[in-house]
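Hi Y.,

Following your request, here is the sequence exactly as I used it, all 343 residues.
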Amino acid sequence: MMKKIISVFAVVLMLALLLTSCGKPSPDGDITGYASKVSIIGREVPVFTLSDSADFNILQVSDTHIISGSTKKDKKALENIRTQIEKNKPQLVVVSGDMVEGNNKNSKFNKKTALETIGNMFEELKQYWAYVPGNNDGELMGTTADVAAFLSQYEHCILSNEKNLTGAVQYSVDLKNSDGKTVHSLIFLDSLARDKNHKYDYMKNDQIEWAKATAEGKIQENPDIFFSFFFHMNTPNFAASGKNGVVYKGSADYNPVPADFYEGIDGNKTFDEMTEALGNVGLVSIGHIHPKTNYCSFYNNTYYHVTRAAGQAVTKNAGCTLITIHTDAKETKDMYDFTEIAF
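Below is the corresponding structure, written out as tokens. Let me know if you'd prefer a different format.
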């Protein structure tokens, strides 16, 4: 009888432990406080010199939503990305947010190993990649700033920030021609996550002013320069491009931004006003939406582009985008080729 009581007690205890641990990620994956140890303020970013073709190829990957790097779906997503890098040989990969799953109660969730798996893959490939945060990246086991600081240990990861700016990353990457002139610049912004009411936040005035000043400084050096912006969440002009823009048509038909595209995030109107005033912004490209297919519409002389999610765990329509920038094009309409890639 005593053996039976002990056996029953052991089973009950095991069930209690399982219930207690269920939904609680391993504390080994917590990177909270990493940003207090490692600063990315003023971190140096590379400059790319173009070949005689004047073309620059970007593989844009978004919303991988990696849980730990070791789940079946994690491995599939990373395998697909690796395949596209090896196939297309881009000069730069842009990872536009939601690298990790975020507020995930899955016991397999491990933020540290998720980031390590991604970072190590790019190091193995010796592939430069530029990172901007998504709304999920800083939701659990470390803030967005912690994620950026953690990723800064990888030589081929491009990210930086300016002192006293809202957000975890803000930086630009210049493309120079063979004469050393900057002919195009890629500008990366943190589109933030959620506000105190748990609604999607918006880019703040100090971020917009930084982007404006950065662009204007480059225009003083070369009045003919153009800009491509990358961040995670949308602005009101995405909806406007769906209603009033023209669908991109390149080597193959591309889907337009839907006319009923989710507007939201009204505070990002300030960003739209800034880019319209600059007048030489060729591209604004985001992730976040998880569309079944990529979207792209040409509106007010700018392409508004949404890439599909790359993560197998969040979509049945995973993929990415190959973007070719023809930096010697005189008109923004002729400056970009977009190729949708389905995994």
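The helical segments are 2-21, 34-37, 72-88, 111-125, 144-151, 205-221, 236-244, 269-278.

Thanks again,
Q.
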